[in-house]
Amino acid sequence: MNSDRVKTLALDFGFASVGIGPSVPKRPEAHHAWIEAGCHGEMAWMESHRDVAADPDLVLPGAVRAICVLDRYPGSGPEEVPPRFGRIARYARGKDYHVHTLKRLQRFGEQLSSTFPDGAFRACVDTVPLLERDLASSAGLGRIGKHTLLIEPAKGSWAVLGVLLTTVPFEMDAPLDEDPCGTCSRCIEACPTDAIEPWKVDARRCISYLTLEHRSAIPAKLHEGLGDWLAGCDICQEVCPHNQPTAARANTSHAEAFQPDRQGFDLLEVLGWSEDDRRAAFQGSALKRVKYEALRRNALILLTNQVCQGDQEAKTVLMAQLDLIEQSTTVSEVLRETVRVCRLRIQ
Q1: Is 126 helix (H, G, I), strand (E, B) or coil?
Q2: CA 237, 239, 240, 246: dihedral to nearest 10 degrees?
Q3: CA 65, 71, 76, 77: dihedral to nearest 10 degrees?
């Protein structure tokens, strides 16, 4: 079935790019092996739903195609950061893509459903554990780099993905088979926690996972590697040759909803937040799911990093925060362990 109408409609809904491919991922066995090795860390839902990732029929019975869409957000190289400041990943500096991209994808699916009434459609934007990058690669949207992110030709990897599963057998696009990385290993060398191997990321060492998903205390050996990343990390994208400034990338359009509101947060402010402050700060953000305690844990580690780099003014404030936490009778063991490690590092 001709797919031209589908693609035109997707672009009308504001998506930057669209491709159609098979609904079954190319390499589900690699995902299974990654989970068996424990590389998913504390994300238990990945293990309990790994069959879903390999079999789209469990998400939409009879699914045969994955219509993959892409929304771009602004990216850049390494950036200047104010003192005692924690950065957030660039995808989260604008509006929540879980909401913005999903709503348009759902409306797109409703429109297709009225055009193809015998077909079924289901929109997915991190709402079910699909292997989105694998599916998008098969749909011709780009190629997966050694950092495991999708690289769009001439545009780079600053993008979020959505998948519309369908039972309608639309004509498929050809995948891009060329290796986008060759001998390049910049992302591997730049990762301060050594989380990246070629086409594999160990979440247990990944700054994005540690600051966003990890609920326990962060291992002491990884504290320094967090640098100034409060929530998320972009280092592997900052150094990627496909993301460096070019004339083509300078003219790349970005979704208006993803224009950045802020680069990050003052660490001392974060340590003084209440739960209500956290909710207000992340209202409408993709980071609203990050727990209050995790943010305090992260801020303590980042402030300790700055003290270890010679910020004596920060040391006075940090010591006061560590004392307050130790004196509390309600603080969690996660924060107590974080305080213990931070004290050892600044002694």
Answers
A1: coil
A2: 100
A3: -20
Helix ranges (H only) for the chain are 4-12, 28-36, 44-48, 50-54, 97-115, 132-138, 186-190, 207-212, 235-238, 247-250, 267-271, 275-281, 292-308, 312-327, 333-346
Catalytic center residues: 126
Euclidean distance between CA atoms 139 and 162, whole angstroms = 12
Task: Point out which residues pair with 123 in neighbouring strands.
Answer: 164
Distance from chain centroid for Cα 216: 19
> Does residue 128 have a pLDDT over 70?
yes
Strands 65-72 and 200-201: unpaired
* Structure-block tokens of residue 123: 């929109």
pTM over 0.85: yes
The DSSP string of 110-123 is HHHHHHSTT--EEE
- Per the CB < 8 A criterion, the answer to whether 231 and 88 are in contact is yes
For 236-282, what is each residue's pLDDT tens digit? 999 999 999 877 777 777 888 899 989 999 999 999 999 999 999 99
pLDDT in tens, 151-198: 999 999 999 999 999 999 999 999 998 899 999 999 999 999 999 999
Q: Where are the domains of the chain?
A: 4-76+91-166, 186-245+262-346
Please indicate whether residue 289 or residue 107 has the higher confidence score (pLDDT).
107
